[in-house]
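User: Can you predict the 3D structure of Accessory protein NosL? Sequence below.
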Amino acid sequence: MRFNSFKLICIFLTVALVGCGDVRPEALTVGETKCSHCSMSIVDMRFHTQLITYKGKRYHFDAIECMEQFQKQKDLKIAKVWVTNYLDTKEFIPKDEAIIIHSDKIRSPMGAGLAAFKTHEDSSQFQN
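Assistant: Sure. Here are the predicted structure tokens for Accessory protein NosL:
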């Protein structure tokens, strides 16, 4: 009886600890994943955006504007949203910390000209 209780406690603790890990953005291979909103292949990683719900469902987008339209259309409880740093495609920034600008100098996949930057200084050269 003691052994069975010990096994149950170990299983419970393992499941609880696995669920407590920090959720991070996933790196993608160019062209392998489609946008969850418009279904275009994600090929320009400067605009890649990710959203994860509280239930753990992850969505990928080819542009910030696709993610915003998707959010408006769906009633999701969102846990985290990351945007790619326009100047460093390997760096993800939490959307609420990013500097998102609209510029005619930026040609985003869907044409809205939205891009995310880490700092205001980084975005200054693209400001209209």
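Residues 44 and 62 are 7 Å apart (CA to CA). The chain has a mean pLDDT of 84.
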